[in-house]
Q: What sequence folds into this?
């Protein structure tokens, strides 16, 4: 993979107007799959399963098998369409998208083509700088997921050059809704942040609706990002690329930034952009060419003759509309008030894409301030360092448990950070890690007093200084004691004991 | 030859329930018949190894006093397009040779639940593409009336098995006439139900919007009895109709008993006759119409101008759907796998497998259908064909405003010689000219014997069609007509079969020339 020439981002935006578009795939968390009674690996609490164990003749495309639409998936799709401000089609239809690929059991995907279930909506997306951008939704349509290929042998892990490939059809037929935006222009410098904020908004919506597990690292939510650059003043649209496999909020932002810089460099050098899919590489933060993609790709769509049109009653649509959770903007206002955060604090949470996590952590019993502190602090730091999303590291209930241990005095902040490391490393719940690593705060005064005595013996003039009013001199003793106790002491208690000793010795005299 | 094989399913049902005969005896008689004649006829691709065991279980249940369905213990043959978990299901294709599905088609489940005895799987044109069964990858089936002739298709195996007394009943599938046209050329009865009347789950799809599973038999009542077993709503098939169906056997019995067609408006479809129809077919058809008129029917001529375009529309819609339905045969999950010499990519393996596994007619239709669905051609081909389909449905609507049932010859000719039309696909396609409109409109249609053509002494068939959901009307009118015809012949048409006589046939020539009246 050659490292592409990149243009400075600000320079790129000066020369070109970025135009964005997103296709977000949401795996619905129904019990069973889109068109069969097989268990859905994207259901709550389900996992990917042993390969090819969550299948029926329908998922495997066996001869004679026929699809039957999952009613719950229809309801979820309508709810999502409504939450995106879309019109719900009184009649929509499934179509077959025909192409040969081994992860596609029937060699066609059942999708919706010219008659999607939801169309023409919009969502308000808040950017870190407080700006709100309205992203228009072209359509949201239902389809089935494909299976998963594992390419064995070869250097790249891709199908080219592999010795052989394994197919797992557990994911085949998982219900998906694909949300397609209209072209988004006017984002300018904010384009990368808008990308991240948009996907985060979609995630917040599906979580609030309870229709998807929405774990990006598990592929419950996947984003294909389209980028093209239009030379300033030209009035002409540029050629777009579609970057696939972007599976974290952070990567969405980085991928857009990278593509803008890459395309700008090519265009400025007089080159042309190839219309193609591009693969995102998390490790290098770059994209590389995938397969050429043109508008002339011929999927030979035609109406799926095995299924009837989807015709939800007006009553069902209204029932689902009345059950919608509050819109994200209203929800944010409500949470900000409830938590008593400043604008800056709240924006920090939103921009980090951690609203859901903080909310869940508060719901699990933590104070809002502590929940925010841990998620946007230590957890975000580790996530950043490991290039993953914070939500993939630890669950809100574990964070709440950790906060509770700190607040009860059983852990110091410093110990709690070690416990967090343990939880992330998979050592169990915070309580388990405390137990296994023996990280409890030493609350036995006897042990502390012994350590204080030892420290004072090395620095005998300290007590005198304290008595002379130089209370800050106690810091040296506290530091020595904490070191001797390997950090497992409550510094506040040590300080108390040192001060007691100083006043106590004065009385002795 | 055992007397048992000459009995109808209804007669067997009576003898079984009165315990005059056992299912083991009946099944053994048919297995013996298969052993005796199927080397010549080649109706079966697979004969069940467990038929006698199943029959013994039915007998056991009956002896214990179990309440059994009317057809319990009666043998049945199953077209190889239907999935059976205990027998290979190949759809007549090399690409599925030896494939045993992990599940039963819904209709097969229903056969088993009603305790019929599956005898085996019957031959067919590959993936039901053909009108002669010559496109089977496993060799043609021969017409019991003349082994040098075709038994029709695609369900030639089921029709020939019934005509040759190898089974009293069989299941077929009909996409453009694959049940009715074989019935016509073998002197048997075949019913294509209303689209959605019988589950397609487990029927290996040819063209999903046209395919329909239905019964094949020697009498109208037998077809109705089998239809009663396999029909009705199936939640595994979204296109299956969720409605209450009347008892078709009752409808057939009523028709047989009445002997009258008084007040029945019989619509003669002007476009389905005349030019292109063999003279003996036309003359027997005219006689059948006279017979119905004599029985009180009001014969009216109706016109369905769009039927002229039916074959053209059909040969766009069918290949389009088939090209997609057959994409799954790629060697990845089941069936044949052919590795190209020197290995290759998965695409190379798919291509080599499909090249080796599909016959020429299948490839022809996949290519046609792929073309018809291509960007830039879709509107002109698939789109236009769908419009013609709508026009044909309207023609049916206006015809049924004037008539209770519509009739036509079921096939334009009697059975032709093997090989005669194999190199001329268009001539082959014309065999279904009379049957295709019903599939395009989703209405039910039946083929039943109407006598032997004078010029060649081979069976001809009449088609009776009714509005959607009115399958029972066909059984009633069909059973009446069948009774009138048999009365005029003095016995059933199949008892005239020269190759497989059940009784001594002193005057075969009489049957050939006497026909249906005089």
A:
């Amino acid at each position: 993979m050659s490292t592409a020439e990149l243009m400075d981002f600000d320079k790129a935006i000066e020369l070109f107007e970025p135009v964005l578009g997103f296709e977000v795939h949401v795996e619905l968390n129904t019990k069973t799959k889109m068109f069969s009674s097989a268990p859905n690996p994207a259901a709550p609490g389900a996992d990917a399963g042993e390969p090819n164990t969550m299948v029926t003749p329908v998922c495997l495309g066996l001869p004679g098998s026929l699809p039957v639409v999952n009613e719950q998936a229809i309801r979820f799709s309508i709810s999502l369409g409504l939450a995106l401000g879309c019109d719900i089609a009184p009649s929509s239809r499934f179509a077959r998208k025909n192409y040969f690929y081994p992860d596609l059991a029937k060699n066609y995907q059942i999708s919706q083509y010219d008659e999607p279930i939801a169309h023409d909506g919009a969502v308000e997306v808040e950017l870190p700088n407080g700006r709100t951008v309205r992203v228009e939704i072209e359509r949201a349509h239902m389809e089935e997921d494909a299976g998963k290929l594992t390419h064995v042998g070869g250097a790249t892990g891709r199908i080219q050059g592999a010795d052989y490939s394994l197919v797992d059809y557990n994911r085949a037929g998982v219900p998906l809704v694909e949300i397609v935006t209209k072209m988004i222009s006017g984002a300018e410098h904010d384009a990368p942040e808008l990308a991240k904020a948009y996907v985060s908004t979609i995630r917040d919506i599906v979580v609030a609706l309870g229709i998807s597990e929405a774990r990006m690292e598990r592929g419950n939510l996947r984003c294909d990002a389209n980028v093209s650059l239009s030379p300033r003043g030209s009035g002409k649209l540029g050629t777009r690329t579609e970057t696939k496999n972007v599976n974290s909020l952070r990567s969405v932002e980085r991928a857009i930034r990278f593509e803008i810089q890459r395309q700008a460099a090519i265009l400025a050098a007089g080159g042309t952009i190839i219309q193609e899919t591009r693969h995102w590489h998390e490790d290098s933060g770059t994209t590389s060419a995938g397969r050429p993609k043109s508008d002339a790709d011929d999927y030979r769509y035609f109406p799926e003759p095995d299924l009837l049109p989807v015709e939800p009653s007006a009553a069902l649509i209204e029932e689902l509309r009345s059950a919608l959770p509050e819109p994200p903007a209203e929800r944010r206002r409500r949470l900000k008030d409830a938590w008593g955060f400043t604008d800056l604090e709240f924006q920090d949470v939103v921009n980090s894409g951690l609203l859901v996590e903080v909310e869940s952590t508060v719901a699990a019993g933590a104070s809002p301030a502590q929940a925010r502190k841990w998620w946007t602090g230590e957890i975000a730091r580790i996530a950043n360092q490991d290039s993953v999303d914070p939500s993939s590291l630890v669950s809100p209930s574990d964070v709440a448990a950790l906060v509770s241990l700190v607040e009860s005095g059983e852990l110091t902040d410093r110990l709690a950070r070690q416990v967090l490391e343990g939880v992330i490393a998979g050592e169990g719940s915070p309580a388990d890690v405390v137990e296994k690593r023996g990280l409890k705060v030493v609350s036995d005064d006897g042990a502390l007093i012994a350590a204080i005595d030892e420290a004072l013996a090395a620095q005998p003039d300290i007590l005198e200084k304290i008595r002379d009013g130089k209370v800050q001199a106690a810091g040296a003793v506290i530091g020595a004691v904490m070191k001797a106790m390997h950090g497992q002491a409550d510094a506040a208690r040590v300080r108390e004991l040192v001060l007691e000793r100083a006043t106590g010795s004065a009385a002795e005299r | 030859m055992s007397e048992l094989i000459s009995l109808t399913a209804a007669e067997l049902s009576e003898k079984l329930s009165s315990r005059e005969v056992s299912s083991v005896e009946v099944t053994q008689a048919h297995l013996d018949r298969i052993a005796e004649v199927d080397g010549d006829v080649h109706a079966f691709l697979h004969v069940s190894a467990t038929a006698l065991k199943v029959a013994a279980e039915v007998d056991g249940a009956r002896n214990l006093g179990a309440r059994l369905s009317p057809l319990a213990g009666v043998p049945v043959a199953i077209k190889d397009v239907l999935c059976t978990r205990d027998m290979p299901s190949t759809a007549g294709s090399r690409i599925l040779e030896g494939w045993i599905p992990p599940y039963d088609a819904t209709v097969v489940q229903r056969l088993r639940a009603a305790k019929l005895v599956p005898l085996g799987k019957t031959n067919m044109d590959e993936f039901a593409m053909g009108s002669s069964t010559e496109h089977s990858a496993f060799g043609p089936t021969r017409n019991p009336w003349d082994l040098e002739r075709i038994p029709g298709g695609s369900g030639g195996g089921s029709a020939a098995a019934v005509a040759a007394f190898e089974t009293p009943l069989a299941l077929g599938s009909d996409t453009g006439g694959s049940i009715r046209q074989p019935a016509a050329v073998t002197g048997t009865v075949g019913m294509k139900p209303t689209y959605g009347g019988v589950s397609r789950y487990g029927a290996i799809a040819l063209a999903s919007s046209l395919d329909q599973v239905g019964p094949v038999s020697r009498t109208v009542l037998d077809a109705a009895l089998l239809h009663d077993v396999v029909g009705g709503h199936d939640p595994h098939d979204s296109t299956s109709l969720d409605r209450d169906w009347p008892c078709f056997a009752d409808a057939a019995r009523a028709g047989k008993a009445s002997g009258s067609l008084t007040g029945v408006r019989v619509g003669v479809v002007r476009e389905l006759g005349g030019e292109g129809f063999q003279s003996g077919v036309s003359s027997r058809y005219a006689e059948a119409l006279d017979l119905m008129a004599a029985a009180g029917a009001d014969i009216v001529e109706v016109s369905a101008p769009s039927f002229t375009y039916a074959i053209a529309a059909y040969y766009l819609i069918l290949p389009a759907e088939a090209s997609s339905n057959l994409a799954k045969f790629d060697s990845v999950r089941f069936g044949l796998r052919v590795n190209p010499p020197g290995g290759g990519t998965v695409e190379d393996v798919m291509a080599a497998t499909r090249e080796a596994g599909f016959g020429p007619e299948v490839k022809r239709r996949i290519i046609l259908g792929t073309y018809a669905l291509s960007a830039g051609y879709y509107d002109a081909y698939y789109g236009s064909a769908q419009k013609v389909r709508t026009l044909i449905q309207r023609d049916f609507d206006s015809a049924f405003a004037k008539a209770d049932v519509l009739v036509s010859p079921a096939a334009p000719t009697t059975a032709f010689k093997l090989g005669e039309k194999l190199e001329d696909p268009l001539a082959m396609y014309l065999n279904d000219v009379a049957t295709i409109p019903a599939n395009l409109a989703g209405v039910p249609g039946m083929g039943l014997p109407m006598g032997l053509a004078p010029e060649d002494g081979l069976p001809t068939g009449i088609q009776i069609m009714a509005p959607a959901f009115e399958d029972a009307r066909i059984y009633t009118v069909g059973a009446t007509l069948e009774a009138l015809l048999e009365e005029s012949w003095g016995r059933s048409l199949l008892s005239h079969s020269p190759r497989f006589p059940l009784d001594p046939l002193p005057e075969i020539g009489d049957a050939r020339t006497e026909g249906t009246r005089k």
